[in-house]
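Appendix B, record 7
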Amino acid sequence: MIRKLSRKQKLAMKWWTIPEYRAMDAVICDGAVRSGKTLSMSLGFMFWACSSFSGGSFAICGKTITSLRRNVVTPLLPVLKQYGFTCIEKVSGNYFDATFLGKTNRFYIFGGKDEGSASLIQGMTLSGVFFDEVALMPRSFVEQALARCSVAGSKMWFNCNPDTPAHWFYNEWIRKHEEKHALYLHFTMDDNPSLTSSMKDRYKRLYTGTFYDRFVLGKWTAAQGAVYPMFSREKHVYSGEIDCERYIISCDYGTVNPSSFGLWGLHNGVWHRLKEYYYSSKREGVQRTDEEHYSALEELAGSRRISHVIVDPSAASFIECIRRHSRFRVVKADNDVVAGIRRVSTMLREGKLLFHESCSDIIREFQLYCWNEKTGSDAPVKENDHAMDDMRYFVTDILSSRGSDMIALSVRR
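Structure tokens (predicted):
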């Protein structure tokens, strides 16, 4: 059972019981990572739902069902049990029934990862909805879920970390929270009493630039300047030969655009980019076939035992070419750009990525890779990004559950 909550956490949890706020339709909590928004809000949502309704249907929404179970449902259910709830989870049906003080309600779990997700929730009648990391969900999904809240007394609960100030949720809900009849609470790390000073300092060390402004200071800040300002030749570039315990190759494949392959080796807990293959048909004046690129992949691997090859998911013909030769296990890369950049930034910040001095193309791209300040959204300029992309595929892979060597780093919450 939770022993200590800050004043703001208590307000996020109990606002619906306070006369000043009871009539409001929604609550919005944004701010820094690890500031205690999610647990206090999710508990408050459950107490409100099971105190206000019996036989009602509710939605708990996240970017994906997997992330929602990991970040919200799995930590929440044992705490609810301590408070006297009886919860019966139906994993195959993506819902759980919760009984409290003789009232039973059903809570459906939804993932809002893309525009097509809106159809999943269409047609339902809801008594309330809880959005975890609402800024990561498409507007169509969020608005469809809100439209389902047609039961008298229904309320909407939102939490998120900041994004760009051009984000639709910032402009339509946070800036208009009074018009929306919503209580707005901004959190900092100091609003989480369970977070020690040393842990706060660790998060401050992990982030820099735009991500520091958003995740540590809790600001809705536009991405600008260099994508990886923490990269330096002195800290991240090495010379000489090393022995590695494991090898992986990552590939960003292009025909007109350059192809960039990186050979990575794990040594003393640090991943080293040992060698690279970078071929630009514009620079060389001739395009290469899939088979020619595969020959370069073989040469890059040499006699090493390669764990697997990670490839740009859009490179269907090259993926098939690798599979046909049967030497390497090939996996499709996760191409979530901003999440991948955040993971790479963390590993660079912690000194978990190093680059051999011979890898001149990725070192060159580090100096040129910058945010596109004209778009109003988080997107790097689509130039000088091919080695950046193959590195991002690699980092996302080793930090995913698919990788066997999970590295304990901070995760966006």
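Remarks on this record: The mean pLDDT is 91. The radius of gyration is 24 Å.
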